UniProtKB/TrEMBL annotation:
Name of the protein in its database record: UBN2 domain-containing protein
Pfam family, one: Retrotran_gag_2
Organism (species): Cephalotus follicularis
Length: 143
């Protein structure tokens, strides 16, 4: 949940602890935050590095990256809603080959899965079979 700056309470007033009063747990928490920041710095590209380099804690960095790439919860729900709509209306186009159709379908389902909405394999197979054009009926019946 972010860095825990070591503090002390004197007569009900909370103030930062001087470094010479840090205990083992204080050092451990600061070290964990530093390690997490280092991992994030090493994991991101130059653009993301510039975006997160001014953050004070690994938690701030993570939250900024999360909002940047996933959006807020409202944005996430909106994306899920849009993709579910796309999934429900999915059909194979007349001039489309089966591999292109499957690629489009997989893109939609993978995007949904990345946002936390997934379907069972059985549901996915049924959906694909239902979206095939009429000339595929004999093959669908055989399956």
């Amino acid at each position: 949940n972010g860095p825990r700056m070591p503090t002390r309470t004197i007569e009900g007033v909370v103030s930062p602890k001087p470094e010479n009063e840090y205990n083992d747990n204080d050092f451990r928490m600061l070290q964990l935050n530093s390690k997490a920041k280092h991992v994030l710095f090493c994991a991101v590209g130059p653009n993301e590095f510039n975006r997160i380099s001014s953050c004070g804690s690994a938690k701030e960095m993570w939250d900024l990256l999360e909002v940047t790439y996933e959006g807020t919860n409202q944005v996430k729900e909106s994306k899920i809603s849009m993709l579910v709509h796309e999934y429900e209306l999915f059909v194979m186009h007349d001039s489309e080959c089966i591999s292109d159709m499957f690629t489009r379908f997989t893109t939609i389902t993978n995007s949904l899965k990345n946002l936390g909405k997934s379907y069972s394999n059985q549901e996915l197979v049924r959906k694909i079979l239902r979206c095939l054009p009429k000339n595929w009926s004999p093959k669908v019946t055989a399956i």
